[in-house]
Amino acid sequence: MNNKRINRISEEVKKAISYIISNDLKDPRISPMTSVTHVEVTRDLRYAKVYISVLGKEKEKKDTIKGLESAKGFIRKEIGNKIDLRYVPEPVFQLDESIEHGIYMSKLIDKVNEKDKRGNTDE
User: Fold this and answer.
1) Cα–Cα distance between 122 and 39 in angstroms, integer?
2) Per-domain residue ranges for the chain?
């Protein structure tokens, strides 16, 4: 299957899942600070690896993934309602901590810059 088509379908699935998580799911385990960072659909359109970013503590992240896993059937059905595909991909949720890692790296850079500024003013 064409790689462009797979990427386009991945983006559509990402939009649909983002909408479903923010508007349709009522599970209290799912954090309101949940976002879909990336979706990779397999070439046969059977599975969609969904990368989820949750801003919060480790318990909130685990609870959100558990909530999404339990709502997997509902999410798949809603994807099928929103996107016209022969096969609706089954979502496989994975926690994406790249945003938190980026924030951590940014704080480290700020600390180094602050130390550097203090070091230059002493001269």
Assistant:
1) 50
2) 3-97
Instruction: Report whether 89 contacts 48 (CB < 8 A).
Output: yes
How many angstroms separate the CA atoms of 80 and 92, rounded?
16
For the chain, the helix, strand and coil percentages under 3-state DSSP, each to the nearest 5: 55, 20, 25
Question: With a threshold of 0.90, does the pTM exceed it?
Answer: no
Do the beta carbons of residue 11 and residue 56 sit within 8 Å? no
Rg (CA), the chain: 19
Say what the pLDDT of residue 103 is: 85
pLDDT(26) > 80:
yes
Place of tokens 């970013």: 53
Q: Quick one: which H or E segment has residue 90?
A: strand 90-95
pLDDT at 65: 94
| Class at the top of the CATH hierarchy for domain 3-97 | alpha beta
Is residue 40 within 8 A of residue 3, CB to CB? The reply is: no
